Amino acid sequence: MPHRMPRIMTGKILRNEKRGVFYRTEVSVPERVPFMPGQFAMVSGWNGNDPLLPRPLGIFRSEGDLTAGIIEFVYKVVGRGTALLSGLRQDDLLSITLPLGNGFSLDDAGRIWWLVGGGVGLSTVFPAATYLAGEDFHMFLGARSHDQHPPREWIPGWDTPERITLCTDDGMLGYNGTVGAAIRERLEVLSSSDKERLTILACGPKGMLKDLAETALPLGIPMQASLENHMACGFGVCWGCATEIRASGGAEYLRVCKEGPVFNAGEVLW
Amino acid sequence: MVTTAETPDLSVRVGALTLKNPVIAASGTFGYGLEFFPFYDISRLGALVVKGISVEPTRGNPPRRIVETPAGMLNAIGLQNIGLRRFKDSIVPALEKSKAVYVVNVYGRTEEEYEVVARGLSELSSLAAIEVNASCPNVKEGGIAFGSTPEGLFNLTRRVRAISEKPLWVKLSPNVTDIGVMAKAAEDAGADAITLINTLRGMAVDPRSRRPLLANVTGGLSGPAIRPVALRMVWEACKAVKIPVIGIGGIQSAEDAMEFILVGAAAVQVGTANLRNPNACVDIINGISGFMEREGIMNLDEYRGTLLL
Lengths: 270, 309
Description:
A: 270 residues, 16 strands, B: 309 residues, 20% strand
């Protein structure tokens, strides 16, 4: 049951590890939280009113049973909230509301899945790769420079490197260029029957998502895009994270936290 | 040993309405109420106020709509809502089933639109009260046009009063020179209670890109940062009018809520705290009960307005 109702949990930090530009935080929670890749949590771990709001973090991993669970988050420090989270130590407490939003739809049989993660978007794409372990998938990971890629052992399927394409804007590691460029090259050699089975899943900067959408959609390739936005509540009440989505007769503002964060890329007004 | 007789009584009266406790979830921070079903039984609240409803659906402001600020946040949502008809058809049945005491915040671009929404809502026997939004700072027509002068507020309140028998609350803007005069204008026009404060008009900019952070440029400041301003205004309003004053502004805890009751508030609304913690209102209700037990307060009437000066 992936789309369980959200709940509030107290978590205790087991491990807070820094690897390159990424932090990986492992938290013990009272029970396992089923989730779909792409769903997220609102997390806070500080006292007082400043910062005021919890931070949205993609759920990287969730395991356990009815009596004990483990949740993991992977993030970059981008502001005060993530800086505070990154400084937490073992046994520090977090308040966590999860699972939130709609994740990727991954249950179509017989598809070819291309998973695309840009920057910290890997925190959403890696669990999708884990979910699709037995399926036909290929993962593209983009970063500005070689030192912005995650550690190899975090990458699901690294033992089958033919399934992974690392892309680096500075050309120092893997494919020299953006994930969009790598995907366009790979599309050129993909058979038309495989193209028909292809679905693209992507999470990353808006520019990357737009580039991918402009490549995939004209070819009729379905694409699911996980969007980011500034959020206050994360569970649909404040309407602060609205983004423009096509609707009958134009467009309307839907909530990244509630109707998203994963949207059909063809419905997003890029 | 605690006997029944020693359990504090949290109930409060707001005009003709009796609420089981003084904690009311504030408009704009509680959605349509149903969003909280996963977290708790919303009938535990004193009441909840549904986000501002207009005659027709309202699209809202373009993003970015939210900026976090020191101990607060700016919002410029722009009153996005599904409109009166869809609210009545798709939300009200679920609210009725929840047994929650619900109030609806009403706004219009013109006085006539306020009347249309208020009339449509008044048909709902389950509706506890109407809250007139005379104070949204983010939409030109969001009430601020009516709520920034005593005459405008008086006329708007009187017109809504004339077409609805429901208890009428008027939500005031803090962006005025003399809140007492505004409160008096609402009282004179027939309001049953006033709610204050709405958000303080604020702004955030990026000094490097030289651009405003909100697409709307300005927004409404809320959260603990505004609590001292709100407290002062509630205190002043309580001295200016005889009708109940519902205090709101930055309340995060039971002690915060008691501060407002101490200066005279009949009840309190909790807003931004709901966004950071979905359980905020029930935590505050439980906290008030604990505060009263510890302080030996049997009911809120004996505590209200007892500020020692």
